[in-house]
Amino acid sequence: MATVMEFTSPVAEFPLGSVFENLPGVTVELERLIPHETLIIPYFWVRDAETEDIEAAFDQHAGVSNIRVVDSVEHEYLMRAEWEQAYFGILSALAEANVVVLSGIGTKEGWKFEVRGESQAAIAEFREHCQENDIPIAITAVHAMLPIQGEGYELTETQREALIVAYERGYFDTPREVSLEEIADELDITQQSLSSRLRRGHRRLIGATLGSSV
Length: 214
Description:
By secondary structure, this protein is an alpha+beta fold. It contains 7 helices and 8 strands; from the N terminus they run E-H-E-E-H-E-E-H-E-E-H-E-H-H-H.
């Protein structure tokens, strides 16, 4: 059964971590990431960057190269980078166990990840690789993918909880009866984490219900 694990890691243990030295107030959020043995070309969002030369701010970071901006919306930048095969760390552990990154959010306080393995064995292999190679991670949750009411719409427990609370509190009403900040406070998570859970939950539901027709 597919298994999801959430964990945290120190800033320096993941590529791009050194950016928080130059831009301590930014938030970096990874797009869905599938590690590969040869080369990883990820996309990631940078939020709250108070600089016009965002590419220069991200220059010279261990494990990444050719960083460039591909789009921007107000103070959010969508960036693209090539992650080098020679980098050893969490990426190598993910690739070794064939584990997919569902979300990754970084701030100056550290990284928060949600990853999915096709089985509990894959998650166990990832944990063992981290232990054997002294890669520090702190596991905060492990759970199986859950279908909703017997249907095939597989959501994680955290995605399901976020969607239900948002719906019940009137977040999807017009006008909204509650803010993203209020829901995040109720769930005791950051607004960035809540936004990611809602977005990934929407993606899964749309993919399961409309995917074949769009």
